From TrEMBL:
Keywords: Membrane, Transmembrane, Transmembrane helix
GO cellular component, one term: endoplasmic reticulum
Record field: transmembrane: 21-41, 61-84, 117-137, 143-164, 185-208
UniProt lineage: Eukaryota, Metazoa, Ecdysozoa, Arthropoda, Hexapoda
Membrane association type: Multi-pass membrane protein
GO biological process: macroautophagy
Family: Belongs to the EI24 family.
Biased composition (Basic residues): 338-355
PANTHER family named in the record: ETOPOSIDE-INDUCED PROTEIN 2.4 HOMOLOG (PTHR21389:SF0), P53 INDUCED PROTEIN (PTHR21389)
Name of this protein: Etoposide-induced protein 2.4
Amino acid sequence: MWLLSSCSCEPKVMKRTLQCCALNGGVFGLSILIFEQVLLPTLRYLLLFLFGDSPSTGKSVWGWLSLCLSCTFGVFWVLPLFLLSKIVNSLWFQDIADSAYRYSRGRPQLLSSVSKLIADTLFSILVQALFLVQGLVVSMLPIVLLSDLLSLLHMCMLYSLYAFEYKWFNMGWELHRRLMFIENNWPYFFGFGLPLAVLTSLPSSYFISGCVFSILFPLFIISGNEADPVTGSCDFPLQLFTPVIAISNMLFNRTIGPKSASKGTVSSAISPHLSALVSSLPHPLGLSAISPHLSALVPSLPPYVLSAISHPLGLSAVSSPSPHLSASVPFISPPRPQCRHFPRPRPRLSPKPQR
């Protein structure tokens, strides 16, 4: 009920949700289904009808023709549209999350500094990518039932993190707090991500599965924004993110520089590398070339942050509603005008009268 009320009261949420359905279901997914289920079977029937006298020749010709058509369709239509839809979807997902958050909770709360925001985002992308690899490795276990159950558990936790991360990021939660909250309340998040994990695993095609995810994910973003997770339902945490956090810390220490970081926390691994991360990037506004997730981050920054990035005097020279933003960058005072000092004129002494 609250999902429908949020969509109806916020026109931008409804608009972006319909656009996601139209792009991923009406254009991308429908074109793949028409090619595979209508065009290829029709051409196969016509070709076998033409080579009715020699069925073996018709089958061999159809084998080469179907391979060429599938490769051409995949290279010139499926792959470019898939990459374009990923970038556009990331922007639309961010708009849906921000609009729903403003409608229900007010103005988003950013992290204390731009460098910390960039570092948290990069570290979060690395952790999620490694966690996806961990789920694929678990699915290769020789015990079929156990591997399927563990792989499903990983996908449910990952999809729940995807959906709730927009709200937690707008609330100012750092990565270690987000992961700890999921691990401590894993039964709730396992059930939350279960429908999306099951529905995306049904299609045999990877691209159709991506279309199903992109169509349903806006609803999960709105649900995560409005939901109040049940806490305290489990006595023990399920530390599935611990291995990927350790690997991420090791990669950061080797690529950026050896820094001392306390064990078990993510914020301690992020803090030493803030200045190195920002200095290694050519420009904070060029993050869209790194990942589609980052391209959704930069347009969501408020105007005072974007203007502060390009302002030569730093964040203190821009009117910011938060004192923490201006405290993170030292203020560079403009040079004082130099006054030219002229010598003081001496008074002319009148000559003494002669007696």
